[in-house]
């Protein structure tokens, strides 16, 4: 089992990837077994926000479709007071291992959370509905048919002031997914970040990973139950319905 190390805010984060969990139907490794580049992009962006004006210290955080959990673990490293890493059951032991490897057992929990599940099926999450300050997602916009279930889950874990940050590689089907989320009532803005450069993730120790940064986007989603509340900055603006052909260029709102 390999691992990757990251330097974030002067501290080292260790994330093990998995080579022994596979889909029983296809025998292929589960997609959550390794760190996707979107997770690197989101984590780097989170570290930048922490250096600017975003405070993790007083935040409760949930990561949906966490895989091996890099962004959620990074939120803990950046000081979040409570983090819940969620995914399908098969991936939970890997997440637990990564929590333990970084000594976050007192602040980070691992829970099964299948999108669209009823709260009663999600042990321990029910009482947290609406309590999370921040929802993190990376590379979960891959199947438009899954978005209704993902929306249902997002609505359950979002309160009036919850922020949702999601990173995605921009692929043609990303647009279909985002359109489904806007149909469910979510507001959507692409957050500004440096694009157009090809460089390694500055967090990854060893620097072996090079990303085409303009292939990725980070979005802030606004839950349907939130009115304009002053959190949305001048760079945020209403998202028109995205046309699929726009994905050929990139997602600009
Ligand atoms: C492409 S992987 C991304 C993993 C991780 N977020 C990353 O960026 O490294 C998609 C993740 O979504 C999870 N996932 C897919 N469908 C799901 C569902 N219906 N309920 C919960 N998790 C799901 C997968 O198990 C996997 O961990």
TrEMBL record:
Entry-linked InterPro entries: Methyltransf_16, SAM-dependent_MTases_sf
Ranges annotated as spanning the membrane: none
Q: Which SUPFAM superfamilies match?
A: S-adenosyl-L-methionine-dependent methyltransferases
Q: Which residues form a coiled coil?
A: none
Concerning Pfam families, the annotation shows: Methyltransf_16 (PF10294)
Gene3D superfamilies reported in the protein's UniProt record: Vaccinia Virus protein VP39 (3.40.50.150)
Reading the lineage from the top rank, the first entry is Eukaryota
Protein name, UniProt field: Uncharacterized protein LOC125418865
């Amino acid at each position: 089992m390999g691992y990757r190390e990251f330097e974030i805010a002067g501290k080292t984060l260790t994330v093990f990837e998995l080579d022994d969990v596979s889909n029983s139907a296809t025998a292929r490794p589960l997609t959550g077994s390794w760190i996707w580049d979107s997770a690197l992009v989101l984590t780097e962006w989170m570290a930048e926000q922490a250096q600017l004006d975003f405070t993790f210290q007083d935040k409760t955080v949930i990561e949906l479709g966490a895989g091996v959990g890099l962004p959620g673990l990074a939120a803990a490293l950046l000081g979040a007071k409570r983090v819940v890493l969620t995914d399908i059951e098969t991936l939970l032991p890997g997440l637990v291992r990564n929590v333990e490897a970084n000594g976050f057992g007192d602040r980070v929990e691992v829970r099964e959370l299948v999108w669209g599940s009823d709260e009663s099926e999600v042990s321990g999450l029910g009482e947290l509905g609406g309590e999370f300050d921040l929802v993190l997602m990376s590379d979960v916009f891959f199947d438009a048919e899954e978005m209704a279930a993902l929306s249902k889950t997002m609505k359950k874990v979002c309160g009036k002031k919850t922020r949702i940050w999601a990173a995605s590689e921009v692929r043609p089907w990303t647009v279909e997914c985002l359109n489904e989320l806007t149909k469910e009532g979510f507001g959507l803005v692409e957050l500004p970040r440096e694009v157009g450069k090809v460089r390694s993730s500055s967090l990854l120790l060893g620097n072996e990973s090079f990303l085409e940064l303009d292939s990725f986007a980070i979005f802030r989603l606004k839950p349907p139950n939130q009115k304009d509340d002053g959190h949305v900055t001048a760079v945020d603006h209403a998202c028109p319905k995205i046309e699929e052909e726009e994905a050929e260029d990139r997602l600009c709102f």
